[in-house]
Specification:
By secondary structure, this protein is an alpha/beta fold. The protein is built from 13 helices and five strands. It has one domain: TIM Barrel (Alpha-Beta Barrel), CATH 3.20.20. Helix 6 links the parallel strand 3 and strand 4.
């Protein structure tokens, strides 16, 4: 559940009750199904003057997401207070975006513990055992993923940002957009490394972003050991059909072949051939 729209609607400083009402309605709509709340994931550039920062030359490498939360903890703790209170209404998880180091994770977790202590002291009811997880979208977190296993309850691999930061590519820059490829072997190795560690430690792991929603990546991710895909409703029919037609052994073999290739385009060709075999184009109007 992306919470950025709350700030677009209410400005840089939504109140605790404004947060709570949004989460209450979300739980109401989910009717008992789990809600994963991703804490604010935007840059200080969006509300630079309101949070006392100057506009940044490159906001994607600046004070954004968890960095902004730690720099302006009142924004973060207001959101967390509402989330912990609303967690009484249904199963809830809290997910931290753009974590780049274990120090950042520990700092955020300490703020959450402080919020719990405050709520307890104030006599306000809340759910204390809400699972805390993280997005893996910064290469440093993927490389050091083993160091997070003791602390993070679950992981979500954000493939769009992971590609951008791994390849140092602005996907919206026409001069380098051609370098933005999810099939880059460096990206795939990082994804596999995260999945391997999560599976080894029995921690839930999912993939979101374009990679999760494209049929050609479903098999290789399945072969890596992924069992949870975070996709939009439009991508579900094709993915469901493809995954019903491939065995685990086939997916694992495909992933091994892909990981032996050093060129992104060759990996893409390999995956496209398999998709064409399993999903004839006429089935989905292509």
């Amino acid at each position: 559940f992306r919470t950025e729209f709350i700030y677009s609607k209410f400005g840089a400083h939504p109140t605790e009750e404004q947060h709570y009402e949004v989460y209450r309605r979300a739980h109401q709509m989910l009717e008992g199904r789990p809600l994963t709340l991703r804490t604010m994931d935007f840059g200080a550039d969006k509300f630079a003057s309101e949070v006392g920062l100057e506009r940044e030359e490159n906001p994607f490498l600046g004070c954004r997401s968890i960095r902004l939360s730690l720099r302006e903890p009142h924004l973060f703790t207001t959101q967390i207070r509402a989330a912990l209170r609303a967690a009484l209404l249904g199963p809830t998880k809290i997910m931290l975006p753009m974590i780049g180091s274990i120090e950042e994770f520990h700092a955020a977790r300490q703020l959450i513990e402080n919020v719990k202590a405050d709520l307890t002291r104030e006599g306000i009811e809340f759910r204390p055992d809400v699972p805390l997880g993280m997005m893996v979208e910064v290469p440093s977190a993927a490389v050091m993923i083993d160091s997070f296993m003791e602390d993070s309850d679950f992981f979500s691999i954000g493939t769009n940002d992971l590609v951008q930061y791994t390849m140092a590519v602005d996907r919206n820059n026409q001069y380098v957009a051609n370098l933005f490829k999810h099939t880059n072997p460096a990206v795939l190795r990082l994804v596999k490394q995260v999945i391997d560690e999560a599976v080894k430690h029995n921690k839930p792991v999912s993939v979101c972003g374009e990679m999760a929603g494209e049929a050609r990546f479903a098999m290789i991710l399945l072969g890596f050991g992924l069992r949870e895909f975070s996709v939009g409703p439009t991508a579900m029919p094709e993915l469901r059909t493809l995954l019903s037609r491939v065995t685990l052994a086939e997916a694992e073999e495909l992933s091994k072949k892909a990981m032996c290739l050093a060129h992104a385009d060759k990996i893409a060709d390999l995956l496209d051939i398999e998709v064409a075999r399993l999903l004839p184009s006429e089935e989905f109007g292509e």
